[in-house]
Amino acid sequence: ETLVLEVHASTVRKQFCGSGRATKIEVQAECRRRKWPVVGPDAADAAALADYAREILARRLEVVPDERAA
Length: 70
Known about the structure:
The chain is mainly α. It is built from 3 helices and no strands. The protein has helices at residues 9-17, 24-33, 41-60. The longest helix is centred in the last third of the chain and has 20 residues, at 41-60. The termini are far apart.
């Protein structure tokens, strides 16, 4: 089964940073807080999107993820 979703950046940032108005710098800061080795704002956005996808997939599979990856 293929799952394709379109999601706005503000939705991803809301889930990842707690604010849909988070800047790229704030997304990078959240990655650093989680000790994720991202380099640059685009990589941080990609990491946030991957985290969002993980959350969506976990809900779809009715899996309760352990603590957010730290």
